[in-house]
């Protein structure tokens, strides 16, 4: 049986899961933001990787670099007259900025640009949308622009010319010239290689992010691989992409924008795997981490997959991604007082350094974790598997420092309720956006903070029940052991779904598939999946990832598939409207070794508590709760709230009026008591 390891590098902790002989071993290592590979290698050392066959990895390193603007210096080359495309974006505003004349795009020149304007250079050339060259590339003028970038000491260059998806010749010549002027080792990303997609701005922003990620991840990946080899690891190292699909690490570095947002997608993959095991395909996954809560909706056993996502408002990345909504409410979310005197929670976080006040790492601001400690939910001695002792007095001092007229108890209780409300509101919003009723779904609570928060938010969301999987604090890392190796490519081409378009569609799909198969080892066994993106004629919004069945192309069936996917995503459809496809995609899936859920033994007799704790702020008066060890609970065990269920790396809260039942695979199902 294969030995599998999954690692999810978060901002606060690095989660490591190993499956050996069907048994799951877990460990949690404090992240090292400056050198994240150190925490990964420490986790590998604890598990032992000398006999591991697969090491699957997801990281927020690149994402955090973008959000903090700790980015390498790169240049941007585009068609002359269009260098401000990165500042203009799509000219969309959020609802909160509609009537605010001072609102600015967070990555615009007036805020924190990804590429400063003097590093964005225009080159004389013009290709039309059909691929015809209207103005030839002026190589001498382009050389002058590259010499400017050379004097500015750029580390990489992003090249995005108008309509290069239709004819990439100018981009290829410009890339060769860039390597000639700047040196053969310079990082270069071309938009037609990053993604031959229509719409210039998303293609430009993706290309810029891609070249930055090449510079950020290349050194990190090399150090990680060398460190694993030093521990006698000789298996396959894979990086997860934004759908949690796996990519061999060297191939991942060819298009690293795809691995930017892998952690939340891994959580969704784990939810799908658990749902299959317990027979529940309608789930809302809630990953409550240190900084935020990431929410994923799963309908009929499948999450929603999009062809792009946003890192910040209007900062678009063209990459297949699991749809994830985030809200700034996590264990490390900072409790503050607004200008009107109200208690607020998030979006700012204490992160891994300095962390919550109770961590004793220099933090002095109150957080949700501090509130849970003062309420009695967290055990100050047994936190994080006994790796850390929490400082109750530091939490008290942090809440006492808030400038508001409330007493200490009111501050803690209000912070708790605000955090719950923030999470519950986003859960409901996600369901409503898809035309669904949250009462038809089960919540899945994972992440370090999910099990201690979501039972109290269950009634607010209206969900039918709460499912807490085994090892919830490392559930996303487990999701990395539930997916396959996937090779994917797509190309833009507008076609009305009529029979006249069939030859062109079949030719394009065959071309994309041939390009993909060149990446595979000879004789590799893969499964082919095809899909397309389309919209109802007249719409500007595309519905992505519409599946194409195997066999010859029939446009009538493609149209039916589009309307079915539109209905699944939006809760309504317009079956009488004609459909226009805009992009075509092929995936080749190589099956990878996966984690299997194994039933646990039956529980006999009544569950025996190992202690009692006094909990405050859950009701009008403090309540006494039984404390149970999760490892002692077998399938069928039933617990009445209030109760606390402890495991080494998570604390599960069951509030008064709820019942928790252990399921077949060790999952804890929390429902309102009948």
Please outline the helices and strands.
Layout: E1 4-9, E2 13-20, E3 23-30, H1 36-47, E4 54-59, H2 61-68, E5 74-79, H3 85-88, E6 120-123, E7 126-127, E8 133-135, H4 139-151, E9 156-160, H5 169-182, E10 187-190, H6 191-194, H7 200-230, E11 236-240, E12 246-248, H8 249-252, H9 262-278, E13 283-288, E14 293-299, E15 302-303, E16 305-306, E17 309-310, E18 316-317, E19 321-322, E20 325-327, E21 333-337, E22 343-349, H10 368-375, H11 392-400, H12 408-433, E23 442-446, H13 450-461, E24 465-468, H14 475-479, E25 485-496, H15 502-517, E26 527-536, E27 543-548, H16 555-570, E28 579-590, E29 611-615, E30 623-629, E31 638-640, E32 643-647, E33 650-654, E34 658-662, E35 668-672
Parallel strand pairs: 1-4, 4-11, 5-6, 5-9, 9-10, 13-23, 23-24, 30-32
Antiparallel strand pairs: 1-2, 2-3, 7-8, 11-12, 13-14, 14-15, 14-20, 16-19, 17-18, 21-22, 24-35, 25-28, 26-27, 26-28, 29-30, 31-34, 32-33, 34-35
Notes on the structure:
- This protein is of the alpha+beta class and 674 residues long.
- Among the domains are: 70-216, no CATH class; 486-518 and 526-590, Dna Ligase, domain 1, CATH 3.30.1490; 611-672, no CATH class.
- It has 16 helices and 35 strands.
- The strands form 9 sheets. Strands 13, 14, 15, 20, 23, 24, 31, 34 and 35 form a 9-stranded mixed β-sheet that branches. It has a 6-stranded mixed β-sheet with strand order 3-2-1-4-11-12.
- A hairpin with a 6-residue loop joins strand 26 and strand 27 (543-548).
- The radius of gyration is 26 Å and the shape is globular.
- The two termini are 44 Å apart.
- The mean pLDDT is 90.
